[in-house]
Amino acid sequence: MPYTLTPSYDDNPRLQDLVVRLRGYLADELIPYEREHGITPESKLDRATLERVWKRSTELGFYGISLPPELGGQGLTLTELCALKEELTASGAALSHSVLGDMGGPLRVGAIVKYATEYQLERYLLPVIRGERACCFSLTEQDAGSDVRRMTTTATPDGDGYVLNGHKVFSSAAPFADFAIVVARMAGTDEAYSAFLVDLDTPGCRVLDGEVPMSGQQMEGDLLLEDCRVPAANLLGAIGEGLRIGIGRVTLNRLLHCPSLIGAARRAWDLSVAHSKDRIAFGRPLLALQAIQHKLAEMATDIYAARSMVMATAGRADSGANIAVEANMCKLFTSEACFRVADQAVQIHGKAGLTRGHEVEQIFRTLRMFRIVTGTTEIHKNAIVKALV
Predict the structure, then answer these.
(1) Which of 55, 96, 266, 283 has fewest C-beta within 10 Å?
(2) What's the pLDDT score for residue 329?
C-alpha cells in the first residue's frame, strides 16, 4: 500500500470501514462534546464522563473490539488494532484513550482472561468488557520500576485468603477504577510473585492521589495496602505466576503503545503543516522556506519508518510468532522517532509551540514521557542485545 500520512486501508475492507466510522465518531461526536464541556488532556476526569464514552463506544462496537467474539469483541488482529489506535491519537481527542478501552477497560484485561477462573471472569472481567466496571494494573513501586523484582509488596497466606501489604505507584486508571490487578511477592520467598484481584473498597486498601506526569494527564494513582485481606478466590493464575502475567502484559503493551505515539506524531505533523501554510514571515508562508520543507520531510520519514516497523511486528504477532525482541525494537525506535517529530513541530511553531496549553506543546510533553514509560530507551536496548547476543 502506498505511503500516506492518513492511511486509507483500501486493501482491507473491514478495517477501512472501521477506520471511516471511527473517524466519523471522533470528528462528529467526541471532539465536539469535549469542546462543549472544556475537556482537555489535562482535565481531571470524573467517572460519569468516562462512562458516557464507554457506553457510546460500546453502542458503536468499538469498546473491546479487539476481544474475541465470545467475549463481545470482533476478534480484530493486532495489525487492525494498531491502525485504530493510531487514528485515535491522530484525531487529537482528549478522551481517545477510553474509546477502545485502553484506560481501565477491555484492553487492560483482555490479555489476562486466559488466567481467570469462571468466578473471576463473571465477577471482575466481563463487567469491565461491558463498560460497567473499570480496573487498574499495579506492578510498579517507588524503588521497583524497571527492576520489578525489587518490589516489597508482600502477600502472606492467612487461612482461606491472603493479606497484602505494600505501596504501589503509577497505577493508570486507579482514580476511577473499581478493582486492581496487584502483583506481590509471596512472603518468605525471594522469587515467587503472584497476582491478585483486589477490590479498591476493601478494608486496608486506599487509593491515593498519584503524581501528575509531565503530560499533565491526571489518570494515575497510588495503592496503599495495609493488612488488606484478599480471598483465595481472587488469586489470579497460580502462585508464582505473577510476573509472567504482569511482564507478559507489559511486552504486548510496549507494542500497542507505539501506534498511539505514531498518531500523536501525525497530529503534530498536521498542526505543523497548517501553521506553516498560515504563518507569514518575510512576505511569504513558512512553508515556502526550504528549511521548513526539510523539517516536514524528516517528520514524515520518521512517521513512515515507525509505522512500518510496528505494522510488520503486529503482522508477525498475528501469525503466532514470538515478538519479544521486535516489540522492544518498536518501542525503542517509535518513542525516539515520534519525539523527534514533536521536537520539530515545536521548532516550526516557534514561540507559540513553547506556550503552555498549546496542542503542540502538550504533544511534546506527552511524547517525551514515553521515552521512559513502559520501559526506558536504555532498558529496551538491554533487552534487544540480551536476546540477540
Answers:
(1) 283
(2) 97
Residue 118's alpha-carbon distances to 113, 121, 125, 234, 246, in angstroms, are 10, 5, 10, 11, 20
The C-alpha cell at 127 is: 463487567
Q: Round to whole Å and give the CA distance between 81 and 343.
A: 27
Report the percentage of the chain scoring pLDDT > 70: 99
Asked if residue 203 lies in contact with residue 140, where contact means CB atoms within 8 angstroms, the answer is: no
Q: Residue 247 contacts by C-beta under 8 Å, 6 or more apart in sequence?
A: 148
CA quadruple 277, 281, 287, 292: dihedral, nearest 10: -130
pLDDT at 2: 62
pLDDT tens-digit profile of 157-213? 999 999 999 999 999 999 999 999 999 999 988 889 999 999 999 999 999 998 888
Q: What is the DSSP letter of 113?
A: G
Q: β-strand 135-138 against 179-186: which pairing, if any?
A: parallel
Class of domain 135-240: mainly beta
Superfamily of chain region 13-112:
Acyl-CoA dehydrogenase/oxidase, N-terminal domain (1.10.540.10)
Residue 28 exposure: Cα atoms within 13 Å on the Cβ side: 7
Helix, strand, coil fractions of the chain, as percent rounded to 5: 55, 15, 30
Do 85 and 91 meet the contact criterion of CB atoms below 8 Å apart?
no
Q: Which of 211, 222, 217 is nearest to 136 (CA)?
A: 222
* Beta-sheet pairing, 154-158 with 135-138: unpaired
Each domain of the chain, given as residue ranges in start order, spans 13-112, 135-240, 244-388
Q: How far apart are CA 137 and CA 168, in angstroms?
A: 10
Backbone dihedral angles phi then psi of residue 40, each to the nearest 5 degrees:
-120, 170
Task: Extract the C-alpha cell encoding 300.
Answer: 514524515
19, pLDDT greater than 60? yes
Which pLDDT score, from 0 to 100, does residue 149 have? 85
Give the pLDDT of residue 306: 98
